[in-house]
UniProtKB/TrEMBL annotation:
It comes from viral metagenome. The lineage of its organism: unclassified sequences, metagenomes, organismal metagenomes. Pfam families: DUF285 (PF03382). This is BspA family leucine-rich repeat surface protein. InterPro entries: DUF285, Liste_lipo_26.
Length: 485
């Protein structure tokens, strides 16, 4: 093909010539013409390649993927698309000044619109006339298109399989989508992530093929509409599905979560949520990390939950920070089968209302219990039936993100219980009972390398069994009533 640079020069470009370039005088406007046979115009790999592009008069290629990538000064494009265009992915990516009407474009052959307006922060033009009947990929289409708020309810989405991140960070978007046909969509991962204004009904969506439901409403702080009609039977991942969805409080107790393996951060800081979940089949879930962390209103029974008796993963079930700061939660959990759980650090930390028996828990496989009841100021239950002598622990930093990568080889024969009882509400009687009960499991066993804090708790060393148990574990921060007297 040939390139006319607009300064009187022309160059023929052949296959091996690489990317054509020319230095032009700064401050002038040039009309550059490309003529010949090309199948694609655009490149999303060359940084600043379009920074000086202000207007496109005519287009001829059928693949316009990344056509105007990073064209921050682009303000005008053709009123018509070339016939047969099938790929518009990333076309206006980071075109931060673009806001030209393109509603009359013929998009009837387009199959890919992924990231088309991503980071096009000024764009807010109608698109309701577009024919989207062939589109299969709309992922990240309006990602961070922070000004966009136009009706799209007439779009034909029947062929779309991927809507992940479609309106993520589209902070102004709030339009009806309930009539969309999403029966072929498999992933809506992060579709409304940080879509802070979005609050529209979606209950009529056919979600029967959706496997990835990660972060759907994460940070959608105003969303609060029923979702009880959703078919979640194929969903495998609900990581942070309602993370910081501060307003959401709808009944989803009929959801089928039997195939879900990841429920971590699911209701993290879902401040308003307080709905039943007791009908859920959670037997396949292996990660509950931060699930109800700071869900300050939640106080619903979970005693019907049956944890997997056999490991869904080789690393067992994780529950760190599950009820951290869930200040209203106070429900029975004593019948949970904990035999396959291995991480529960910070589980009830700052859960200031929690005070339920847990003595039936089988903690034999738990590796770390650090900060388990720290600042759980109402907790006053004995734990003397817990057998710590069979536990194994790994060097997991209790302040780090819990994932499979920071589980180190087993190095001790007891769990990490640092700060486990700090400032909890355990009475002197229950604390002594717990110490003695734990100690009894280590009789005739070598003294383990174990230490923990029990700041704010009291014991009386005048009782010989209490004194022996305390000397064995040597907790710090507690108060010897006998010594004070």
């Amino acid at each position: 093909y040939y390139v006319k640079w607009g300064d009187g020069t022309e160059k023929e470009i052949i296959f091996n010539d690489g990317y054509p370039s020319r230095t032009l005088t700064k401050g002038k406007k040039y009309r550059i013409k490309i003529k010949g046979k090309i199948w694609r115009y655009g490149d999303d790999e060359i940084v600043n390649s379009n920074i000086y592009l202000t207007e496109v008069i005519k287009l001829g290629a059928t693949n316009l993927s990344g056509a105007f990538y990073g064209a921050t000064n682009l303000v005008k494009v053709p009123k018509r698309l070339p016939k047969g265009v099938y790929d518009l992915s990333g076309m206006f990516f980071e075109c931060t000044n673009f806001n030209y009407p393109i509603n009359n474009w013929d998009t009837s052959q387009v199959t890919n619109m992924s990231a088309m307006f991503a980071f096009a922060s000024n764009f807010n033009q109608p698109l309701d006339k577009w024919n989207t009947s062939q589109v299969t990929n709309m992922s990240a289409m309006f990602y961070s298109a922070s000004n966009f708020n136009q009706p799209l309810d007439k779009w034909n989405t029947s062929q779309v399989t991927d809507m992940s991140g479609m309106f993520a960070s589209a902070s102004n978007f709030n339009q009806p989508l309930n009539k969309w046909n999403v029966e072929n969509v498999e992933s809506i991962d992060s579709i409304f992530w940080l879509a802070t204004n979005f609050n529209q009904p979606l209950n009529d969506w056919n979600t029967s093929k959706m496997t990835n439901m990660r972060s759907i409403f994460a940070g959608a702080i105003y969303f609060n509409h029923p979702l009880d009609k959703w078919d979640t039977s194929q969903a495998t991942d609900m990581y942070s599905i309602f993370w910081k969805a501060h307003s959401f409080n709808q009944n989803i107790n009929n959801w089928n979560v039997s195939n879900v393996s990841n429920f971590s951060y699911a209701l993290y800081q879902a401040y308003s949520f307080n709905q039943p979940l007791n009908n859920w089949n959670v037997s396949n879930i292996s990660d509950f990390s931060f699930a109800f962390c700071k869900a300050i209103s939640f106080n619903q029974p979970l005693n019907n939950w049956t944890l997997s008796p056999s490991s869904p993963t080789s690393l067992g079930i994780k529950m760190p920070y599950m009820f951290y700061g869930a200040s209203s939660f106070n429900q029975p959990l004593n019948n949970w089968n904990m035999s396959n759980v291995n991480i529960i650090n910070n589980l009830f930390e700052n859960a200031t209302s929690f005070n339920q028996p847990l003595n039936n828990w089988n903690v034999s496989n738990i590796r770390t219990m650090n900060n388990l009841f720290k600042n759980a100021t109402s907790f006053n239950q004995p734990l003397h039936l817990w057998n710590l002598s069979n536990n194994q622990s790994s060097a997991v930093d209790d302040n780090s993100d819990i994932d499979d990568n920071n589980i180190l080889p087993l190095i001790t024969t007891v769990p990490k219980i640092n700060n486990m009882l700090d400032y909890c509400g355990m009475s002197q009687y229950n604390y002594q009972l717990t110490l003695v009960g734990w100690h009894n499991n280590f009789i005739n066993l070598e003294k383990p390398s174990i230490s923990f804090d029990a700041v704010g708790l009291a014991y009386n060393s005048s009782f010989s069994d209490v004194s022996a148990a305390h000397n064995f574990f040597n907790p710090t921060g507690d108060i010897d009533i006998n010594f004070q007297n």
